[in-house]
User: What shape does this take?
Amino acid sequence: MSFIGDLFGKSPFGPLVEHTKKVHECVEMIRPLAEALVKEDYEEIHRLQDSVCKVEYQADQIKHEIRELLPRRYFMPVASSVLEDFLHYQDKIADSVQDFAVILLIRQTKLHPALREEYFGFVDQILKVSRMLLSGAEELQELAETSFGGAEATSVLERIRGVGEEEWKADRLQRVLSKKIYSLEKEIDPVTIMFYDKMLRTLSSVANEAENTAELLRRMILHS
Assistant: This one.
């Protein structure tokens, strides 16, 4: 490798894009997990939980590769600490998906039929938040090549601008669903309500951390 190659090293931004895609691959498993819960297909939940673990492990492997690259990278358009924060938020997204799968696995909880419409509305909104984040974050490598400026940066800012609003919509749907759950408390035992609450909280954290990641990406662009 040339002196310039030694000095600059391998860019971490390509692996960061791959990490983002792997994390979103975890998020996309939320919908089939939700469907398996409604169908009371607990074998499918077990299979999907295994799949989430495998994809989350693959994301961890990419994360470790990135962390090995960061100390060697002396000239980057953003500080390595910012990229560490980006990885941290992404990690929490994948961890929340894994937590959701485990909650469904450890108890054969049944979803009350009256909750299905609001439940799937909430799930689909979580996916919308993650997909919106992905549409911007997958451009990280191109952003780095332009030092987080120019038309590429403007395009990414447009893509992620709505993440906060969509996360707010997810929060609103969570409140609607929680209210519906407690309106049925005479029909649902307290342990089941506790599990419903755990489900909602873990799903909500997926959207919350996606919003945090989008905000960090926005700061990368505006302050680089």
Remarks:
- The domain at 10-223 is CATH 1.20.58.220 (Methane Monooxygenase Hydroxylase; Chain G, domain 1).
